[in-house]
């Protein structure tokens, strides 16, 4: 019986090792914005090892399989139901990490590549209109204060962000004769060594606690030895 089970065991071990050695696929957005407006066209591309072919890719939306097997998944976001987490997998790659897509119904949308930036990174914002309608008098705001005005340019870029660039952003623009405002987007700029600095902040505390613990331990054993050396006092009745 054991000889019969051995090949099955080896097969399972081999399959587990193969699965563990596979690299994850990567989902990318084209255009790269993770937030879009209804009726926008978005292409999700599955980048992973495998044999190129029509039936070599598996797609998931919020954990449910999508009936699409091509490398590119093209979406016309007719409704907000297209919002959610997307994943993909090829025949020779592991399931990708989820990529989130948000679909909004509005006239204007402030688009950013991400919500968290590291100091020194470039940041690009776009004031995007529904159905790509022509816009004018475009203004970008940070914490209610205007950062940039342009008669036509719908983009605002910062070459190297710092902590002063954190805040609540939105844009305003005229569509035809009407002025529209986008919803507010909170963007955070983090220090390059924020996690490291937190560790160094706690090192002196633990160092002092270690010294106090050593002193307490040494004092305890010293008193214990001294107690053993003191002879017991004997009392005699007279």
UniProtKB/TrEMBL annotation:
The keyword Signal is assigned to this record: yes
Stored SUPFAM superfamilies: Immunoglobulin
Record-level GO BP terms: antibody-dependent cellular cytotoxicity; cell surface receptor signaling pathway
Cell compartments where the protein resides: Cell membrane
Region forming the signal peptide: 1-15
InterPro entries (alphabetical): Ig-like_dom, Ig-like_dom_sf, Ig-like_fold, Ig_Fc_receptor, Ig_sub
Gene field: LOC100015157
GO cellular component, one term: external side of plasma membrane
Official protein name in the record: Low affinity immunoglobulin gamma Fc region receptor III-like
Origin superkingdom: Eukaryota
GO molecular function, one term: IgG receptor activity
Domain Ig-like: 7-93, 98-188
Cited PROSITE patterns: IG_LIKE (PS50835)
Keyword annotations from UniProtKB, A to Z: Cell membrane, Disulfide bond, Glycoprotein, IgG-binding protein, Membrane, Signal, Transmembrane, Transmembrane helix
Record field: transmembrane: 199-221
Keyword Transmembrane carried by entry: yes
